Amino acid sequence: MIRCFVDTVNYAPEYKLPKLLATKIKQFTPLPYSFNINNTTERIHELKRAPITPTSTFAYLDITNMYCNIPITETKQILDEMLTSHPTDPRIKSELLNWYEIITKEDYFLNNNNKINMQTDGLAMGAISSSILSEIFLQHIEHTHIPGLAQTISS
Q1: Residue 6 lies in a domain
Q2: For the purposes of burial, counting CB atoms within 10 Å of the CB of 17, is it exposed (0-12), middle (13-18) or buried (19 or more)?
Q3: What is the pLDDT of residue 14?
Q4: Domain residue limits at 83
Q5: How many domains does the chain contain in total?
Q6: Beta-strand runs (E) in 33-112
Q7: Residue 8 domain-assigned (yes or no)
Q8: Residue 2: inside a domain, yes or no?
Q9: pLDDT at residue number 8
Q10: 4 in a structural domain
Q11: Where does residue 142 fall: left (phi above 0), alpha (psi -120 to 50 degrees), or beta otherwise?
């Protein structure tokens, strides 16, 4: 069985590039974080005040092994669309997408026998860029599907 883990300092040759990519993505494609909870205590108080009826529906989304399950190709397409929709210089957009390709093609991990392998899909655990890239994918899914689900539930 393979565990998804990357030691970016000791095994991945490109530590600085993922860090730079994460910084530049935050600069050029600000994320709305519309469905994220910033303050759990405040959210609990809001839920206590919310009217609960027999037709009320609550949903809780929990992600298991998130980074390893983020699709590389689809996330790149989403990033491309985000860079296109923001006023990003085409040369910068091209460079960021090239960095994305390099980073996602060079994901190394250790298996249970402590052998270094290359990950072929999904984002690498421990890679400094995986957090922002997974957030891009998840926010896309949220903005694509949650409004429709909410409308279906309320109908």
Answers
A1: no
A2: middle
A3: 58
A4: 16-154
A5: 1
A6: 108-110
A7: no
A8: no
A9: 47
A10: no
A11: alpha
